[in-house]
């Protein structure tokens, strides 16, 4: 069985040749600050953008075992940005992206927001996505772990909803450069719930997010984690790259350490921020559009990822917020607790998005 298409069809192996100056259209819409950031941090050079993209494209012939279902310039560019324009590393990530989808075909069947499993996960707030970005231009994703109703959502469907959300968000070139932040609130997450997080499904998530997706994660922040989450963390550490481990921060219930890295004005009140409490239906309404319904199965309009930004703002005002379990975090004096002892003062890799 061959690979399935989860994205719009594009040309197989484009070999368009032209003046490299024309390639600057791929930077259209980027702010001057972001263009400069891409130059300084990612080694992005508009004068050789086409050559960089074509070098990655030329490597595709070396992996005939993988179906590269999309190879247009804009698509390859996001992999180059994710690997700081190291062509070999960018191609390796591109290959892993499609290989992961070939090896997990069931996950990517009906890979859109109208899939019943994905829709339920989205409505239950997996993931939450804050409207505004932080002071570094990064998009903030939220996971309220205790809201996982295991009789309603499988872990795989939650992972599918997260991956679909990232597919939508990564279409934004600004986020390809600035990246993402993930905050996981473990308040009220029971031992029984944690027992369902087996090594195999955690490995599946790590492979999908760390090894096979062209996103720059600037930090993963644990809040209110109980002792058994620390134990789970020891299970997944062997699957984490050293760079990933250095970006995992364990804050406990001390939000001051979180605020050292993400300013309160960008956070909802659950995390000691100045924004209103997060409405977990916000992102689901964005993806599902006018057919959003948190009570009945979604069966009508399928989601088109390329047009998400045209969602009606009036609809969001009409839909009432859905209550959710609240964080037990408190703001208290303390220092940042990093997952690695002895690295408490080493926050530069997080902030610099190395």
TrEMBL record:
Signal peptide: none annotated. It comes from Neovison vison (American mink). One of its GO terms (cellular component) is early endosome membrane. Residues 118-279 form the CRAL-TRIO domain. GO terms for biological process: lysosome organization. Required for normal morphology of late endosomes and/or lysosomes in neurons. Binds phosphatidylinositol 3,5-bisphosphate (PtdIns(3,5)P2). Pfam families: CRAL_TRIO, CRAL_TRIO_N. It is a peripheral membrane protein. The keyword Transmembrane does not apply. One of its GO terms (molecular function) is phosphatidylinositol-3,5-bisphosphate binding. Keywords: Cytoplasmic vesicle, Endosome, Golgi apparatus, Lipid-binding, Membrane. Residues 335-344 have a biased composition (Basic and acidic residues). It is found in: Cytoplasmic vesicle, Clathrin-coated vesicle; Early endosome membrane; Golgi apparatus, trans-Golgi network membrane. Residues 345-354 have a biased composition (Polar residues). InterPro entries: CRAL-TRIO_dom, CRAL-TRIO_dom_sf, CRAL/TRIO_N_dom, CRAL/TRIO_N_dom_sf. The gene is CLVS1. It comes from the Eukaryota. Residues 311-354 are annotated as: Disordered. This is Clavesin-1. CDD domains: SEC14 (cd00170). PANTHER family: ALPHA-TOCOPHEROL TRANSFER PROTEIN-RELATED (PTHR10174), CLAVESIN-1 (PTHR10174:SF72). The keyword Membrane applies.
